[in-house]
Amino acid sequence: MKHYFSRRVRAVLIIAVLLAVVLAVVTGVTGKDIPKMLVQSVMTPLRTSVSRLQDQAEQLYSYMFRYEALAAENAALKEKLAQMEDDARKADSMARENDRLKALLELKGAHEDYVQVDAYVIAWESTDWNNTLTVNRGTSAGIDTGMCVITANGQVVGLVTEAGPNYAVVTTVLDSSLEISATIATSGYNGMVKGNYTYGNENMLRMDYLPSSAIIRNNEQVVTSGSTMYPRDLILGYIIDAGFNDTGVAKYAVLDPAAEIETLEQVFILTSYNVG
Hints:
CATH topology of the domain at 115-276: Thrombin, subunit H
Order of helices and strands: HHEEEEEEEEEEEE
Number of strands: 12
Distance between the termini: 142 Å
Radius of gyration: 46 Å
Number of helices: 2
CATH superfamily of the domain at 115-276: Rod shape-determining protein MreC, domain 1
CATH architecture of the domain at 115-276: Beta Barrel
Helix content: 25-40%
Strand content: 25-35%
Mean pLDDT: 80
Strand order of the largest sheet: 1-2-5-4-3-12
């Protein structure tokens, strides 16, 4: 056994010596460091792999950093946009309020006898048979049933039909239960105006009992005739169509309401005015 290991050791030593001689000869002939070349041939792929991993890590870090920066920038832009939209809404609201105040001043200038209370619409209700809205003023502000409700432009909104301490329900002109004595402003023809639901057109008004001989033209203005509930010359709407009723004895006219009931923000309730 000893001789066996001795032979193996001698063989390894001989091979090592021969390899060293060969490397020395090759190095001497070629002028190149063969061991160094061997080490480099092994290390180069490792270095390349490490370099690739390093590049990928740097790219990933750069992406993550850029993503966080973009997310922060996006959040800042959203906040700025929301602020701009809020400012725009406030500007629109102020512009509408300014327009209403200007119109109201003109209305007061033309009707100094009007005593009115302003109110904001807080709820709407529209069904097959009625059309009402609720405002934020009531009996504590001098509001009572039977009072006329208008816009700042003198357009008829409706009539107060219920009043509580801090609210009032207004039955609008679109409600088919409300009838208003009216006049075609240019021609002077008289009739009665009511909501047009029963005739199949919920968003329009209908003026009945017009003379069969009446000449009715589109875009003519229809105003209140004047009564204990509605002052004279409040605007009800504009004629868009006309025809004979079922009996053929009288004419009717279809009106586009002057007040945009579904988009109202503020209304004015007439608590007092001169009748006549």
